[in-house]
Amino acid sequence: GCLQTPAHERRPGANPYLVSPASFFYVVKYPPDVAFWALTMAGNLFLLALFGAVPVRVARRLTLLLDFGTTALFFYIAHMLLVFLLAGVLVALFGHDTGVTDPMNPDDSQGIDNLFGYFGTWALALLALWPVCRLYSRFKSGKPADSLWWFF
């Protein structure tokens, strides 16, 4: 089968999805997989219930979440632009040959596989976009309820 982990090599005759906890939670995003949809939907509903249980007086102090939450589509588009614009620079500065070819450019195997570099880039992107999202949220709140700006 396509599910191959070290746990499967140790127990080849066992059910491939029950060999280890990692194999139980193995989901595939592409091609679309029902398990991926169900796992991500369960996670989203859990977070929705968790944030819904937060009292209003506490929620008002979570300005970071409110700023990104009120500008979700804007943040998504802005972070994609920021990451794509900085990707070449970051790979040039911190990248090395990972041995994994890029599907879009098979001749290139440069990348960043450092976990601290990944999450550091993620945190810097969040910090860079927070004031922009905050300004956009204030701009959007000044528009009438039927304005197209509320979609973004």
Automatic annotation (TrEMBL):
<keyword id="KW-0472">Membrane</keyword>
<keyword id="KW-0812">Transmembrane</keyword>
<feature type="transmembrane region" description="Helical">
    <location>
        <begin position="68"/>
        <end position="95"/>
    </location>
</feature>
<protein>
    <recommendedName>
        <fullName>Acyltransferase 3 domain-containing protein</fullName>
    </recommendedName>
</protein>
<feature type="transmembrane region" description="Helical">
    <location>
        <begin position="34"/>
        <end position="56"/>
    </location>
</feature>
<keyword id="KW-1133">Transmembrane helix</keyword>
<feature type="transmembrane region" description="Helical">
    <location>
        <begin position="115"/>
        <end position="133"/>
    </location>
</feature>
